[in-house]
Specification:
This protein is α/β, with parallel strands linked by helices and about 675 residues long. Among the domains are: about 210 residues, no CATH class; about 140 residues, Heat Shock Protein 90, CATH 3.30.565.10. It contains 20 helices and 25 strands. It is rod-shaped.
Length: about 675
Amino acid sequence: MRIGLVLSVLDEEYQISVYEGIKHKAEEYGFELICFQLENSILDSDSVISKLSDTSLFDVDCVILLTSVIIDNYIIKTRDDVKKIWGNVPVVSIGQEVQGVPSLLVKTEESIKQLVEHMVLFHGYRHFLYISGSSNHQDAIVREKIFLECLNSYKSIYSDISYTVKTASFTELSAIEAMKTFFAESPDADIDAVMCANDNMAIGVYKFFKMNRDNLKSHDVAVTGFDDIPQSRFSNPSITTVSQSVFQLGERAVDVVRKLCSGELLDNHFYVGSEVIFRESCGCHDAEKETDVDAFFNQLQKKYIRSESMLRLVTRLGQNLNYVQDIRALQYSMREVVAEFESTDFSVVRFAGYEKENILVEPMFVFANGENITEAQNEKILPLGEFYKKINSGRSLIFKYLHSGDEFVGAIIFDVPAKVLPYINSVSINIAQTLVRIQVLEERQRYAQKLEKDVAVRTAEVVEANKKRLEVEGQVLKISEMERQRFSNDLHDDICQRLAGISMLCKSYSARQDSVKKEEMLELSQLIGDTLQTTRQYAHNSYPVELESLGLNKAIGNLCDSFEKQSGIKCRYTWNVSDEKSFSETQALNVFRIIQEALHNVLKHSGADETCVSVQEASGLVCVSIKDDGKGLAGGRQKRGLGFDSMQYRANQIEAKFSIIPIMPHGTEIRLEFTRVIPGKNFKS
C-alpha cells in the first residue's frame, strides 16, 4: 500500500514529529510513503497534489491530511470538500475535524483548563494577554475559546482578572508584531502573563522582551506556550507548555488509514491525550533541569553544536551552488549535499511543461537507494510519474516544490534524517536559484548558437550575393564590351564603307576633265543622305532621344514601326496605360531597352513571321509583353545568352519580375511586371 501524506512544510517540530510517527508506522507495516509539502500552495482540484492517486503520477491508495497546518484548511470542512480534490480515495485528517472523514484529534480542553487554573490559583496572576493563532485556523479558534471560557469562569470569583486578545499567525515574528501592537495601543499596560497558542509565539514573546528590556518590566511577566517543541525545553527560561503526543498521532493515523483501506467501518473521531509541562517561564521550577542538570546541559550543548554545524554546512553548500553554471557542476555539488546530509535518496528535477495532462520533468540529479542512477540522470524529458517509478525503492520519500518567486521551476524528491529536515528548506532555495541560473545560461547559449548559425547563413548569403554581383558586373562589362564592338563593327562595316565610297566617288569626280553630270551629283547626294540616316539610326540605338521628346508610348511605337520596316516581320503594338500616371526615367529607359533587345532577338534568332508588343496596366501593376510566333527556345537556343542576361539585369534595376515563357505549340513570350510608383525624374507617357 502506498500512502500520500499532505502537510505544509517540514521545517518545524510539530510537522516533523507527525511525519516521523507516520513514517515509523508505515515502515513497520511495510507500506510506502510519499510526503508532499504544500508550503503556500493552494489545495484544490487543479493542483498536482489533487492527482496523487492518478496511476500516471504517484498512484497512492490513501491520503493522510495534516489539516491543522495547511494554509487554506478552513475550506476543508466536510467529506464533500475532500472529495472534490481526491474523489473516492480514502482520506484521514490529523489535527482538525472534517465531517464525514476519520479525524485524529488531540484532547486539549482539560490541559488548557489546568494551565489557566495553575496561572490564576497557584501563581495568582490576574492580568493576561492572550496571543492567538490565525483567525481561520481551527486549533487557534478552539484554544482561544477554551482560554476565554476558563478566564471568564474565574472572573466571576476574582473581579480583578482582566485580559486582552491579540491575533498572530503561529510564528515568532508574528508574536513580536502582536506585542509591538499591544504596547503601542496600551503603553502603560501592566500584565502578569502572556499566554500563547503555540511555543513558537512564546519564544517570540521572550525575544520581544529581550529587545525592549530597558523599557519594559519583562522579568515580572510569565509566558506560556503550547505543543512542547524542543526549543521550549532548551529556551532560557524554559517554557511552560502543553505537550501533545504528535508522534503517537502520526502512528495512530497509519493504523486508522490501514483499517479504512481494508473496508472496516470506523468512527469519525480518534483522540490522543495531552498534558501540561510546568517549567520556569510561568514561575515554577524546571523539575527536569533540577533532576539531572548535567544531562540537561549536555543535551543543550549537543543541540547547539548540531545546529551550528548544520548552519555552517547549509551556508557552504549555498556558496558552492552559487558558482554552479551547468548541470554537471550541479551534480557535483549535489553529491556533496547527499554525503553531508546522510541521505540515501535525493533527486532534483526541472519542470519541462505538460503533455496530455502529464507533468513533464527533466532529471538534473538522481541519487536513489544509495547510488547515483546515471541512466535516469541521462533521461532528457519524461513524465513525473514515470520518473517516480524509476527512483522509488519502496521506502519513504518527500516531494518538495522548487520555486523562484511565484514560478515553480522544479522539485526535489528525497529522504533525510529528521535532524536535517529543518535545513532542507534553505538548501532547496539555493537549488531553485541554481536551476533558474542554469536555465538562463542555457537560453543564452542557445541564443548565441542560433545567432552564430544565423550569422553563418547570412554570411553565406552575402558571399553568394557578392558572387552573383560579380557575375552580373562581369556580364554587364561583357555586354558593354560587345555593344562597343558591335557599334565599332557597324561603324567600320557600314558608315566607314559608305564614307569611303563617297570619298572615292568624290576623288573620281575631281580627277575628271569634264564636268560632273546632274545625275551623278544626285547619286552622290543620295549616298550622303543614306549615310546620314544610318548614322542617325546608330545614334538612336545608343540612346533613344525621343523618350524625352515623345514619351515612352510613342517611342515604343516608333521602335516597333522601325523594326517592321527593317526586318519585314509584322509587329503589332498596343498600349493600355492611363495617361494620368507617369514612369520614372529609369523605368522608361530600361523598359525601352528590354523591348529593343527582345525585338533584336526575334529578328536574329526566332525566324518569326509576326511579333506582338503590349504594355498593359491593372491595379497599379504594369505588364510589358513581347510575343513572337517563331521556333521558340526549344527549337533554337537551349542556353540563355548575354541578351537575356542584359534584359534580366535591366529588370532588376527597376525591381521588376522578368520571365521567359514558351508559347505552345511554338513561339516565345518575354514578360516584365513592375509597379510604377518609384521616385525620380519622370517622362510623360
